[in-house]
């Protein structure tokens, strides 16, 4: 549908008040505000239900899963409220959909009345320009510095953009504000925000980069009004979307990043869907490579966190996908007082922007054609916050380039975070950040030297004593502090520093921490507030133990290094970068739901009120024993890695890297960096279920679940009791089966293997056909002879498993 014809104005008022066939705008947003989740339902892992009657149920639908539409009739509009509701009688939605909340603008019957309503909205600002909203800040920045996002283009992946709107310059193509785009729903080059379900993309684009003057002379502006726009339409006329269109849009951005006069530097995704264990892998398999590619292109991607905080499924991720991707910055919504909106989903440390009652552009067709393409509506949702934060990053990028600072994905995000204000959400204890763009774009300290080349006067020959003061400890107050601790000057193995000390920096300056050779710890106490510290390790062996600010030994962390010990107190956020030694880090959880993400280069552990990050550490031990439902995501190295999974304990070893996770209810291990990797899955004393496939294997029992993805060799052993079940799935016919009553093994022609020992129940499938295993295979002599592996009793297997686990525990204890 490409309908943009403007109806003739009426002779009396200039407006056609109630045009035939034009719906009210309330129901539409639910269909275009958030990516639908129905098409992900068939991707639920067929192995996830251990007692499903048909083990292959659902697997035959995978090939067509992403072609399934998201039925628009699943939404029924409630006339008594402005928010759409889910009609569960017309469609089965296993995922929670999070539409933005529409608040219609009350307007009269004339253009002057429309402008009056627009003026009363205070232009999304404080009116006098003194407010702290992102739009207020950007207006002041534009007036004082001229920084407005010029020289850049932002891609809006949404329902399209009404590019004929006054706020977008009333044009499309080269030389206009909306310089290009594509409609992936209708596969053409006209990404106009039309159709009954349209206008969400236009509203989002206006908050990012719209600018115009109303008939009454008032100014509407987004956060980066100097930036160009690209419209990428991924919703059809009914408001349906699918992952394939979004994937194509992300690739389009990569392929066309330098096509236009101003390069694409930023992408906004005010859409998303809830993910859980059953569909996470499938969705991420489609989009993660494109999202990572854009991040490495230095194109920042921002996405709405979601609006389902109050009704979020407990099995779903905390924020919608793709906001939950490691390559994407999730954006939450706050109110005018800086508090998280009740509807906004939450992620520890996430960026936020105002997302309530925000006025922005909507297409002419929404309210009826009056001949003036200048309509606006007020919306609420994380969809409205995300484009503002995305546009703010463009201002920071422009300021960095002007100051001669390299602007990369990492450096821009670091600048946004380091200059932001950290708050703690009273309802969850999680932290969130509000942006101070004016501080983020201030690089005046890099312009001019205060002695040799002062900015505002003649050279000053007065010598300045910049020798840091020596301190033996540090105590702060109730402010939110950001400290930097530098051990890089220490000489490995000597306990001495090249200049005699360790350096600590805060906003006031730099200090030396004297090392007197005693064993008493030096105390760095951050006091109250949301505090952060960045630590650069020494070239020797450093040992760091990190604890969150709640629970046992709350907030007391210990850093041991050559020549001293430092006790860190009261820090919610700690980052550690190895200086090159054989370092070891131990991290403890909170009593909430915590998440670990680790790989061969770095690790991040986040939870209620804390965030720990480490880089370049060889030995990592993480304990999740304080409570909550905790999840660990562990990724391999380029070496031949060995994974061990046991209930309440998992480890991944490769080269010099060792990662250990204790007490996690959910563990996800990934072998994707290279090498020939092996996984060893062990049972508990209860009834366990294991499934082994060529790409992914899992184990589940009472209170825990673990999976291993991409491992070439997988061995599953049931030796600790209970009635255990195993299923082996093989796609390739190029392999051999070997079975006995207690052994099922498949060996592929490529040298990979799948082995299961000691299970009471065994099933095997090759290309969806049942393979006889266990007693049935022996009786029918249906598979190869049983001489492939030496016979072993269950007692022998159990002893080996116990010895292995004991050895791993002792290894951990030796490092404590």
Automatic annotation (TrEMBL):
It holds the Pfam family Peptidase_S8. One of its GO terms (biological process) is proteolysis. Residues 1-20 are annotated as: Disordered. Its EC number is 3.4.-.-. It is an enzyme of class 3 (hydrolase). Residues 1-13 have a biased composition (Polar residues). One of its GO terms (molecular function) is serine-type endopeptidase activity. The keyword Lipoprotein does not apply. Residues 149-420 form the Peptidase S8/S53 domain. Keywords: Hydrolase, Protease, Serine protease. The active site is at 158 (charge relay system), 200 (charge relay system), 383 (charge relay system). PROSITE patterns: SUBTILASE, SUBTILASE_ASP, SUBTILASE_HIS, SUBTILASE_SER. Belongs to the peptidase S8 family. This is Peptidase S8 and S53, subtilisin, kexin, sedolisin domain protein. It comes from Rhodopirellula sallentina SM41. The lineage of its organism: Bacteria, Pseudomonadati, Planctomycetota, Planctomycetia, Pirellulales.
